Amino acid sequence: QQQVKQSPQSLIVQKGGISIINCAYENTAFDYFPWYQQFPGKGPALLIAIRPDVSEKKEGRFTISFNKSAKQFSLHIMDSQPGDSATYFCAAKGGGADGLTFGKGTHLIIQP
Amino acid sequence: ETGVTQSPTHLIKTRGQQVTLRCSSQSGHNTVSWYQQALGQGPQFIFQYYREEENGRGNFPPRFSGLQFPNYSSELNVNALELDDSALYLCASSPTSGMADTQYFGPGTRLTVL
Fold first, then answer.
1. Which among A40, A76, B43, B87 counts the fewest CB atoms within 10 Å?
2. In Å, how far from its chain's centre is CA B43?
3. For residue range B13-67, what is the model confidence (pLDDT) as tens digits?
4. Which residues pair with residue A45 across a beta bridge?
5. Peptide bond preceding A8: is omega within 30 degrees of 0, i.e. cis?
6. Which of B43, B101, B106 sits opposite A32 (nearest CB)?
7. Dist. CA A88–CA A100, nearest whole Å
């Protein structure tokens, strides 16, 4: 059972455009929603995270939008740059000693 | 402040063998988690250690075991290796209370089982 569904699987965006990646979750016990960026051969790097008590969080060019009633959240990358080309993972976590549950990832390519 | 480090970088084993992977947590972090990332997939949670005890586990069999040491370094042990155990193994550390959900990953160990 896949508890976090991520889409699209791959995405091509022109330089300067907005990249949008979407995730949906099923487990209402989840209360922490981070996004990770991973380059080939590297470990995931934390980009930004949100909790359900807010609907939006912005850090630099990265914004998370969160819809608790729909059980959906998304990552927006503004002014996308070629250096943003990577695989992006959404994740979710409940309380206590639960681990992160990851989506399957989105391979993002920013064309110059 | 150093980040999470893992060793070795790459490892090749034969089916049926045993392997030990090592992780050093980020300074000040007392919780460590291990994940398995198959090629083209998201990481999957194996287990978590806090104060040298396993306090959370994902859907992995008992042949996956671990240790956490007083200096917060950690080991992942896998017995009776299977071909499907070939993956990138990631260690992640979390700080003490306040941001305990935040997990910082190391670069991983690439395990190949032949």
1. A40
2. 11
3. 999 999 999 999 988 888 999 999 999 999 999 999 988 899 899 999 999 999 9
4. A37
5. yes
6. B101
7. 15
